[in-house]
Structure formats: structure tokens, C-alpha cells
Amino acid sequence: MDNLVDIDKMTFRRGGRVIYNDISLNVPKGKITAVMGPSGIGKTTLLRLIGGQLTPDQGDIRFDGKSIVAMNRSKLYETRRRMSMLFQSGALFTDMNVHDNVAFPLKEHTRLAPDVIDTIVALKLQAVGLRGAAKLMPSELSGGMARRAALARAIALDPDLIMYDEPFAGQDPISMGVLVKLIRQLNDALDVTSIVVTHDVTEVLTIADYIYILADQKVIGQGTADEIRNSESPLVQQFLKGEADGPVPFHYPSDKLEDALFGDVK
Amino acid sequence: MNPIQALGANSIAKVAAIGRAGLMLIGAIFALPKLKNVPLTIQQIYVVGVQSLLIIVVSGLFIGMVMALQGYTILVDYGAEGSLGPMVALSLLRELGPVVTALLFAGRAGSALTAEIGLMKATEQLSSLEMMAVDPLRRVVAPRFWAGLISMPLLAAIFSAVGILGGHVVGVDWLGVDAGSYWSLMQSSVEWGNDVGNGIIKSLVFALVVTWIAIFKGYDSTPTSEGISKATTQTVVFSSLAVLGLDFILTALMFGIE
Amino acid sequence: MNKYKAELMVGVFVLLSIGALLMLALNVANQTMSTKGDTYTLYAKFDNIGGLKERSAVKVGGVTVGRVTSITLDKKDYTPVVELSIISKYSEFPETSSVSILTSGLLGEQYVGFQPGFSFDGIANLQDGDYLQDTKSALVLEDLIGQFLFSRGKDED
């Protein structure tokens, strides 16, 4: 199978703390790949690594067969035009309305005539159901609408890869359902490759073609949705069922409570 | 960490920050020759320059008036109230114009620049630009930098001109200094290159420093509400200190050493 | 915000600052005698130049005709040499002209007062690079007081 993104034995440290230790990950072309894991293990960092905003300490990351790590600046910028990222907050430009936000990448990277751009923007907004909201400012949108507007902007240039950073976090069930449907539809209709980073298990299991579960700096489980559900790994099961304590401990590493309370005063 | 280690780590971090600031400045300066950025820069001159106009005009007027009042009470004892014009004009052009404008600019526009860029960072707008293959240095930082550099000398010129008019109002219209001697003595003691020109050079240097600090503090801020508030405070404090310190050095170079 | 409005306001801002600069240039600063224009150079030796500085004015009957461009000390006899740069328009001063260092008002700046001499037959005009022979030094307050005390002392004897 053809992979769009290959992560090969990659190690990444930040401020002396190891975030990823020698992990390997493949994202097949035209599929939705989900990356799950508990909060705070650097899932967003993974997307930034793929986007070339961060550089791994060891190992390699390849996009369409070419190493992102070894690219110079202009090559990297060229490659980034083929990917887009939906940030957790949407990251709409607050000083422009929705229409201008979606038109922004088109104006920056193409020389299309203004009326052509207007048409494209209208189509993209129609795809996410926000054509009527084109004149609104980002501050006037609800969280879910902002994310959909950002999604329209992300697909403006018809990228090969869309990366979703926690697309479902903090959404009500209806907008969550809308987003799930949108991700699936866009993936099939535009023939793009999607990476969804999330910790919302149930939603992702319904749409993802392949799933990686990260914890403890490593990949602890991978497979299709069914394989994951039937996994025997206690870690995976704890994550799927949302148990408070287990292989992923409830407590942040610390000394023993008894020592802290009753131990000798240092 | 023991204190010596902490001191060392702190110093290394500071040097690294200076390095990042320098790299950012270079990135912003070399981003000028794009024609596409001219409308963006004009937009920013509106935000940074035009919106600072009111505070500059009002402060200039009052400072000119106060100087005329103070100067008059001292000069009149020596029968030299005719020298009020040169006194007001020279202190405004050489010192107060550039310095007070820079301080007001740091408070009015510098803090706003820091907060805006800091918030753009916190809301991932800068990251998102980068992921769209648009360089935030070129798109966000450069127009603001050039707008600051262009606006401040213009504001300083307006400040001085308004201050001299304010001095005229108090000195000539209220206190009865002869209008002819106010203007003619001013003209005979103020030189275009030496006084006006050096004032503009000072103002350019201050503009560079204040805008640089403001933009860098925003660009390098910790993207949290606490981090942005700290960065905004630091912008005002650092740029005020830098302006006053540099003013002494520049004055010594321009007027002090014969 | 309306883009056109911003552009308009920036235009007003730039015009305002050009106006301010024009006012500074025309009403506040004197650019007539700064440096440019044709000049010729004369030298004058004084015993004492008092508070004369570079860029002090050279005046004939109150009209500025030039500037002091440099002040140096003659290495041989240790007297100050003042270099005067005079506008070429005023080039017909006879050799008998004299210069003195004067003060404008009680507390004013010092300037070089230029007294054109009479021109007889056989008296040439001053040329570029000439030395003025007849010079009067600046009045130094301490010397004046000294003379005054000295003359008082003589009277009482």
C-alpha cells in the first residue's frame, strides 16, 4: 500500500523531556488515520513534526517519499502547500470575516482573478454548510462553526493531506456529529488523506480506517477499529473504556503520600 | 539549581533571546521588497501611526505650553524673555520631541503590537500561517515593523511643531513676548541639519528600538494570558529604558563632544 | 474595518507630518547659511577668542555674511586662528578691514563683527585665504575687572 506520510524510528525531546521514543507510524494514501492517546502526550506535537514546524532529534519523517527533516526552507514551504492543518481553536484570522479567511490561502498562493476566488470560496463554504455566514466575523461564530469555517479554509487549496488537531474537543453532540460526517465526506469526495488526532474514542472508531494509540512515548496499539476494540493490551482497553486507573496511572509521578505527610521533615 | 548555575542558565537564555530577536529583525527587514505587502503596511500605519495622532498632538501642545510658561518665569528675570522661542524650539526638536514621542508610542502602540502578536500566537494564528506556507515574519511582523519605523519620526515632527505652536500660544498670546523675537530668534538659533536633522535621526533610532522590542516580545511571548500580560509590561518597561539610555548616548554623540 | 478609510487616514497623517516638517523647515530653522552656496575663506588671528565657537556668525553691521568654520591654535606663536567662511556675494572687502569679537546683548552669543575698511588707491580687496591684520580680541570679564581694580588702586595712591 502507498503511504503519504512515513514516520520512521523517530525520537523527539523537548526541554530534556522525551516526548516520542523511537516510534514508527505510516499514513496510507486516501484513508483516514486516527492517532489517539491520553491528553498531554504530545499528539499536537506529532502534527507539528509532520508539518515541519518542529524537527525530530533522531529518525526521519517522509511526506510522499521525501524527507521533511532534510528539506530546506523553500522546499518545505512548497511541500506545506500540499498539506493543511485544522487547529484545535480553528485559528481563524480574527481581523477578517469568514469569506476573507477562506480566500486568504488562495490570494497568497494563486493568481486567480477575484471573481474566480469568490466562486471557489462560495463552493468551499457550501461544502461545510456556512455559505450564509460568509460575512460574519470569527468572533460572531460558535465554536463548532469556527471549526467548520477553518475546515473550509484548510481545503481551499485542495491539499493532499489534512491534519485535524482535536476536531471534536469541546463540541456539543450535534456539531460533533456534523464534524464527523464532514471529515468522512471530505476524505471520500476530495480523495485526500486525513490524520485525525483526538482522544474522543467513540467518534473516531466510526470513521477511522486505521488507528494508532500512543502512550508512554510509544505506539501501544494499532489496527483497524475492530482490531483495536478486540485488543488484549490492558493499556488499550483502559483507554477505550476510560478507566480512571490502570497501566496509565491516575497520579502524576510523585513520592508516596505517606512520606509526604508523615515523613521526616527535610 | 544553585545560584551560580541559575545565573549561568539565565545568561545563556538571555543571549539566545537576543539572537532570536536579531534573526527576527533580519527576517522582517528582508521581507520589504514584496509589493503585495504595501497595502498591509499602510493598514498598519493606520493602526500604529494615525491612531496615535491624538495623544501625540495633545501631549505636544501641553508640553509646549508648559515649557513656555516655565521658561518665561525664568528668562524674564534676566530680561531675556525674547529667547523663549529658541528655548522651546531647541528643547522640543533635540530632546522632547523624539523622546516623549517614543515613550508615548511605546505605551500606546508598542503595547498593542505586543498584545496583538502575542494573542495571534496564542490562538495559533501564527502556526496556522506557517502551515499554510505563509511566512508569519513576512505577513505579520514585517508590515508592523515598517509601519512603526515610518510612523514614529512623522509623529515626532508633528509633536515638535505642535509644541512650538503651543509655546507660541502661551508665550506670545498670553504672556506678551514679542511675536517677532519669538520666531526670529528661533530661526537664528535653530539649524536645519544640526537640530531638526539630528532630532529626526534620534527619532528613527527610537522607532527601530521600540518597534523591535514590541514585536519581538509579542512574537517570543509564552502563549498564555499570563505570558502575554508579562510580555506587554516588558515591552513598555524595556522600550522606555532603552529610549532614555539611547537618548543619552545619541545626545553625547551629536551635541556633547566637540 | 474599511480599507479605503484606513488609506485615506494614512494619507491625511502623511500630509500632516509633511506640513509639520515644512513648518519646522521654513518657520523654525534657518537653512539660509547652513553650509551650501559659494563661499571664500579668510583667516584672522586673535589674542583671545573668548566664547567664540564654530558656526558662530560673521556679521557686517548686523547682517550675517558668513560663519566661523574652524578655530585652531597657531603652532608657532600659540595664538588662536579663526577660519571665516564668507559668502562669495560679499567679496569686495578692502585689505584695511578689521574684525572684532562681539557679544549680542548682555547674555547673548558671541559673534565676529566685521568692519569693512576704507578703500584707497593701491589697497587691494581681500582674496581667498588672506589673513586679516587688524583684529580686536574678545572682552574677558576677568581682565576687565582686573583693569578696573588696577585703575582704582592707582587713583587712591
UniProtKB/TrEMBL annotation, chain A:
<keyword id="KW-0067">ATP-binding</keyword>
<dbReference type="InterPro" id="IPR017871">
    <property type="entry name" value="ABC_transporter-like_CS"/>
</dbReference>
<keyword id="KW-0813">Transport</keyword>
<dbReference type="InterPro" id="IPR027417">
    <property type="entry name" value="P-loop_NTPase"/>
</dbReference>
<dbReference type="InterPro" id="IPR003593">
    <property type="entry name" value="AAA+_ATPase"/>
</dbReference>
<protein>
    <submittedName>
        <fullName>ATP-binding cassette domain-containing protein</fullName>
    </submittedName>
</protein>
<dbReference type="GO" id="GO:0005524">
    <property type="term" value="F:ATP binding"/>
</dbReference>
<keyword id="KW-0547">Nucleotide-binding</keyword>
<dbReference type="GO" id="GO:0016887">
    <property type="term" value="F:ATP hydrolysis activity"/>
</dbReference>
<dbReference type="InterPro" id="IPR003439">
    <property type="entry name" value="ABC_transporter-like_ATP-bd"/>
</dbReference>
<feature type="domain" description="ABC transporter">
    <location>
        <begin position="5"/>
        <end position="241"/>
    </location>
</feature>
<dbReference type="Pfam" id="PF00005">
    <property type="entry name" value="ABC_tran"/>
</dbReference>
UniProtKB/TrEMBL annotation, chain B:
<keyword id="KW-0997">Cell inner membrane</keyword>
<protein>
    <recommendedName>
        <fullName>Intermembrane phospholipid transport system permease protein MlaE</fullName>
    </recommendedName>
</protein>
<keyword id="KW-0812">Transmembrane</keyword>
<keyword id="KW-1133">Transmembrane helix</keyword>
<dbReference type="GO" id="GO:0043190">
    <property type="term" value="C:ATP-binding cassette (ABC) transporter complex"/>
</dbReference>
<feature type="transmembrane region" description="Helical">
    <location>
        <begin position="12"/>
        <end position="32"/>
    </location>
</feature>
<feature type="transmembrane region" description="Helical">
    <location>
        <begin position="53"/>
        <end position="76"/>
    </location>
</feature>
<feature type="transmembrane region" description="Helical">
    <location>
        <begin position="196"/>
        <end position="215"/>
    </location>
</feature>
<comment type="subunit">
    <text>The complex is composed of two ATP-binding proteins (MlaF), two transmembrane proteins (MlaE), two cytoplasmic solute-binding proteins (MlaB) and six periplasmic solute-binding proteins (MlaD).</text>
</comment>
<dbReference type="InterPro" id="IPR003453">
    <property type="entry name" value="ABC_MlaE_roteobac"/>
</dbReference>
<feature type="transmembrane region" description="Helical">
    <location>
        <begin position="141"/>
        <end position="165"/>
    </location>
</feature>
<dbReference type="GO" id="GO:0005548">
    <property type="term" value="F:phospholipid transporter activity"/>
</dbReference>
<keyword id="KW-0472">Membrane</keyword>
<keyword id="KW-0813">Transport</keyword>
<comment type="similarity">
    <text>Belongs to the MlaE permease family.</text>
</comment>
UniProtKB/TrEMBL annotation, chain C:
<keyword id="KW-1133">Transmembrane helix</keyword>
<dbReference type="InterPro" id="IPR003399">
    <property type="entry name" value="Mce/MlaD"/>
</dbReference>
<feature type="domain" description="Mce/MlaD">
    <location>
        <begin position="39"/>
        <end position="117"/>
    </location>
</feature>
<keyword id="KW-0472">Membrane</keyword>
<feature type="transmembrane region" description="Helical">
    <location>
        <begin position="6"/>
        <end position="26"/>
    </location>
</feature>
<keyword id="KW-0812">Transmembrane</keyword>
<protein>
    <submittedName>
        <fullName>Outer membrane lipid asymmetry maintenance protein MlaD</fullName>
    </submittedName>
</protein>
<dbReference type="InterPro" id="IPR052336">
    <property type="entry name" value="MlaD_Phospholipid_Transporter"/>
</dbReference>
<dbReference type="Pfam" id="PF02470">
    <property type="entry name" value="MlaD"/>
</dbReference>
<dbReference type="GO" id="GO:0005543">
    <property type="term" value="F:phospholipid binding"/>
</dbReference>
<dbReference type="InterPro" id="IPR030970">
    <property type="entry name" value="ABC_MlaD"/>
</dbReference>
<dbReference type="GO" id="GO:0005548">
    <property type="term" value="F:phospholipid transporter activity"/>
</dbReference>
